[in-house]
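Dock iron/sulfur cluster; give full complex structure.
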Amino acid sequence: MKRRLRLNILINILSTGCPRISVLSLKTFRAPKNPDWCPGCGNYGILSALTIALSELKLDPSKVVIVGGIGCSGKTPHYVFANGVHTLHGRAIPYAAGIRLANPELTVIVTGGDGDLLGIGVGHFVSAGRRNIDMTILIFNNQVYGLTKGQASPTLPRGVKTKALPRPNIQDAINPVRLALASGYTFVARGFAYDVPHLKELIKKAVLHKGSAVIDILQPCPTYNDVFTKEFYIQRIMKLDDLKDWDPVVRAPEEADEKMLKAWEKASWGDKIYIGVFYQNELVPTYEDRVSERIPLYKKYPPAKIPISVDGKPLASISHIIQPRII
Ligand code: SF4
């Protein structure tokens, strides 16, 4: 990791000709590897927004973990200069939860598609929300299974026929924002892959949020989705911030239900599709806080920092986790 960091700093210096450039320049989080996504894919905008957000937050790349699932979006960890895991189909969230709970010092971000996170992985998606684990989930939502040639995903509305479907879709769609609200996520937002400055700010807010954060990112797939295109969204997208008196932040417990109902209403799809923060509530204790109540030394000595052997003899024992043996 240190070797890669030095290499990246060198690339920054060489590419700018400025040896005094900040270690955390805008290129710090861009891995020196070209994505193999199709030309015009919305994933490029998401990758830009993500890497710029991480740079502007001045995070240490060695303390950031990107966890991808399977699909076009699942390749994202390869293109971000940080720790990364390319996991199994539908299993990015439990991998990420395990990483975060093993070492709560890490910033953990899931990058998964709508088919991955809301199809085979939907049980994990709901569980992460109700646990309120402090991590961020980015849904690359293009309404199709792009990597496997454009089948209907769980977010494609009923009656819609994209070009790879022989007939219109006969299943109803999941609204990711509404599912996140119902599941207990304490930060819920929607972004647009082609509005990088706006999406970058959403990602920064999600990463800084204390609790489980999800951003449903409208990500056109020009190869297989000829219905929900960049032009379709540009004609319909409105920003929540432009609404008079829009305030998604819950500041007292009694505000939570009212703000959630407002978020639910604005999350609908129609002639207007809102992007921005729908709901934010930091009054709910995180899962890490709840674990700490049971295991007081958890945050000081999380599992990743507990020695597992001494002189070749294993120390693995549940009693060592509850009452760590410090060497
Ligand atoms: Fe992007 Fe669609 Fe191509 Fe996948 S198939 S890389 S989602 S344009």
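Observed: The pocket of iron/sulfur cluster is lined by residues 37-38, 41, 43, 72, 142, 146-147, 221-224 (CB under 6 Å).
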